[in-house]
Amino acid sequence: MQAYYLHGPRDLRPTDMDPPRPAADEVLVKVRATGLCGSDLHYYLHGQNGPFVPERPFILGHESAGEIVDAGACADALPPGSRVAIDPSHPCRACDHCIGGRYNLCPHMRYFGSAACSPPQDGSFREIVPIRAENCHPIPDDMAFAEAALLEPLAIALHGVGQAQPIAGRRLLITGAGPIGQLIGLVARHYGAAHLAVSDIRGDALDLAAALWADQPLRADDTDALTSAADTGFDAVIEASGAPAALAAAYEYCRAGGTIVQLGVQPGPVELPVNLIMSKELTLRGSFRFAHVFAAALDLLARRQLDITPLISARFDFADLLAGFDAALQPQTIKVVIDY
């Protein structure tokens, strides 16, 4: 079978390899679709993702869905041919965080397509992946694999919106209209937000948000418009861009007593307006990956409560993975999906 190994910045190499053999608690999944994530792009551009530097060539990709081709000892629950979405997280299940239910904070987490662990955890830019049976979520026959592949980022959005609860009847500002920001907006609208504003510097991204869920698209570089929109402040601000200026704006435009959720990964240390945090009694919350929401994300799509397919900007065949990465780097692109 074929896989793509990252050897360094912009150095993805197709490699022939033997199909994997499943462990006792694993099945083999023939990947049918994988979404390109921002972390994949960081690894591709820089050979690393922030502080996570791979110690060997490894396989990217973690937003995926496919068909079980070898069920191993799990055939009763997941027979061959089962269509599944893959939860890419592999916590240890034994540390204090895991036992306490916050397994997304597990210090021993192994996450598909990530060098946050040692050695790096190979991901889904290969034709067949071994995966724990418990990480496979059956999907309906009428759910496209490309749609199911986006359950992982949808779960991240659900977790982020959960950190900003309560949502119903409140005014929210989402900074960043990339794929995660768009999904956050769709989720917040579903859960009853009264008013949703979104800021970004990309006109195309703002237009898409306005068409799908946003009441008030705002240019992130238009301070007057942001100040006017904020009025006395937003009840909650969810930062999903990773831009230092957007994080600074969150503290400015969140109302006194409001909540700020930082979901976007900042490029480095940032200064915090601690006196503003004190005087406005702001609540600050981080949002890292997700926990206990993958099944809820699947349920939202299965019941057609959300339509996330408009976020797919382009699709490429697995053999054209490099072209897919190049397309994903274009400013007008929201989400690229790779078909196998």
Tell me what the structure shows.
- With 340 residues, this protein is α/β, with parallel strands linked by helices.
- The protein has 2 domains: 2-150 and 308-339, Alpha-Beta Complex (Quinone Oxidoreductase, Chain A, domain 1); 157-286, NAD(P)-binding Rossmann-like Domain (Rossmann fold).
- It has helices at residues 38-46, 96-99, 145-148, 151-163, 179-190, 203-212, 223-230, 244-253, 274-280, 294-302, 321-328; strands at 2-8, 11-16, 26-35, 58-59, 63-70, 83-86, 89-90, 110-111, 128-132, 136-138, 171-175, 195-200, 216-219, 234-239, 254-262, 283-286, 312-317, 335-339.
- The strands form 4 sheets. Strands 3, 5, 6, 9, 10, 17 and 18 form a 7-stranded mixed beta sheet that branches. Strands 13-12-11-14-15-16 form a 6-stranded parallel beta sheet, with helices on both faces.
- α11 links the parallel β17 and β18 (335-339).
- α4 packs across α5 and α4 (151-163) packs across α10.
- The chain is globular, with a radius of gyration of 20 Å.
- The protein starts with a strand and ends with a strand.
H/E element sequence: EEEHEEEEHEEEHHEHEHEHEHEHEHEHE
Number of strands: 18
Using the coordinates shown, work out and report the CATH topology of the largest domain: Quinone Oxidoreductase, Chain A, domain 1
Number of domains: 2
Features:
Rossmann fold; 18 strands; alpha/beta; 340 residues; Quinone Oxidoreductase, Chain A, domain 1; 11 helices
